Amino acid sequence: MSQVSAHRTGRAPGQPNRRSAFRARQRAMPWMFLAPFLLLFTIFYVAPVFYAGYLSLFIKKRGAFGPARDVFGGLANYVRAFQDSDFLVSLWNILKFGLVQVPLMVVLALTLALILDGVRGGSRACSAPRSTCPTPFPV
Q1: Tens digits of per-residue pLDDT, 49-83?
Q2: 104 phi/psi in degrees, rounded to 5
Q3: Which of 63, 62, 59, 84 is nearest to 73 (CA)?
Q4: Which residues are CB-neighbours of 120 under 8 A, at least 6 positions away?
Q5: Which residues, other chains included, contact 69 with Cβ-Cβ below 8 Å and sequence gap of 6+?
Q6: Which residues sit opposite 72 in a β-bridge?
Q7: In the chain, pLDDT over 90 holds for what percent of residues?
Q8: Of 1, 16, 26, 87, which has the highest C-beta tally within 10 A?
Q9: DSSP letters along 67-80, please?
Q10: What DSSP character marks residue 110?
């Protein structure tokens, strides 16, 4: 029976399958390209966010003598922040800004894209606005 299967595949019973090795490399290739981004994203974005969340659970206690020390305070910092009227006013201002600015920017960008898409012709006048109009959006 093993001679029949070796004859069908064209390889000896102990040799690896070239197709499966190729498919394994094909499946690993996207992860190899994503690995540098994922590593840097985790180090410089995800880890600091979690570390800041961890630090926000501590309170600085200053004694009469010696340096200040960190004491676990739980959610006391958040309770104190949400009881502060200045914090709530600033939070409301940020929320209003986001509710106005984001839809306005999306509508303006879509309108500009439709206008520029509607401009036909190969003149030089059309190429300049197409390259300069979207410039403020990434900034």
Answers
A1: 999 999 999 998 888 888 888 889 989 999 999 99
A2: -65, -45
A3: 59
A4: 126
A5: 60, 61, 63
A6: 58
A7: 45
A8: 87
A9: --EEEE-TTHHHHH
A10: H
